[in-house]
Amino acid sequence: MSDEKFGLLVYEEGERFFNIGDYIQSLAAKQFLPKVDFYVNRERLSEHKDKKTKIILNGWFTHKPETWVPSKELLPLFVSLHINSTASQRMLSTEGVAYLKAHEPIGCRDHYTVRLLESKGIKAYFTGCLTLTLDSYAKNNKSNDGKIYIVDPLYGFPNKDRIFTNTKSIIKGLITTDIFKTNSANKFMHKIFSQSLLDNAEYIEQELPANKYTEDQKFELAADLLKKYSTAKLVITSRIHCALPCLALGTPVIYLNGFESEFDACRMEGLSELFHTVNVNRKTGKILANFDTQGLIDENINIINKSDYLDLATTLKVIVQKFIDQRDI
Length: 329
Description:
Mean pLDDT: 89
Order of helices and strands: EEHEEEHHEHEEHHHHEEHEHEHEEH
Structural class: alpha/beta
Strand content: 15-25%
Number of helices: 12
Number of strands: 14
C-alpha cells in the first residue's frame, strides 16, 4: 500500500467566497483513504502530472468544463458524480464521453446525471451522495446539546449580498425585480417556523470569505461543522451538504427546498426525498411539506429522519473500499 499514491479533491475559491460544503464532500472521501499524498484541484484535474494517483471523483462537475478531461495520471473512482446542466455540453464532448466510457460504470449522485450519461451511451447508476457515509463523525451517545442550527435557509432566494455585489448584479436585480424581493426568504421562514424557534436558533453560513484559509484549515473548519451538526437537536437547511451529512450523523434535519431553476433542480433528483422536506415556491407562495407539520414548526418538534438513505450509504462504503483495496487498476 505504501507505494500507492492517493489524491483528494480541493476547490477553487470564488472572488468573494468559497463553499465549505465542498470540503465536507471531500471529508467523505478522505475517511476511506489510507493517506493523502496530493491535494488535486477539481477545476484543474487535467494538470495533475505527478505519479499515478488514485482519486475519488465525487460531487459537482464542473465550474470550468473547458479543463475537462482529467490527467491520465489520475486513477479515478466515479461515485456521487453530478454533471450540472450548465457544464454538460462541454464535458460530454467526444473526448469527454470517451473518457467516461473508459471508466464506466459511473456512479451518479442524482438521477438527472444518470439519464444524461446514459443518453450518451455511458453506463451509469445512481449512488446518492458520498456524504451519506459520514457516520464516522457521529456522536457516541444519543443525547444532544439542545441547539437548533439554521444553515443558509432558502439561500437561492434574492438577497442583498448577491444583488449588491457590483454594478452588473445591481442592474440584473433591477431587471428581474429581485432587488425589491430581498426579504422574501425571511417572510417564508416566518410562515414555516415559530418566532421562538427563529429567535433561539443559531445561524450558520457555509459560504466563507475567500483568500483567508489554507486548504488544511478548510478541512478543519469542515470537520468542526460536522461536530456541531452531530450534537444538534435539529438542523434546518437548504444546503444538501449540510442535510445529507445530518442523515449520516443521526441528527434530525429539515430540508428547505426553494429551488426552481434547472441549474439547481437537476442536482436534487433522488436526494430531496431522503429528507423531511418543506417545498417553497417563491412565485406562487405555496408551501408544501412531505411530513405532518401541524401548523408552525417550533422548537418542540420531534422528528425522526427517514431511513431510506441507509441502503445507499452501505453500498457506497462497499464500492469505495473495494476501489481503495484494488491493486493495479
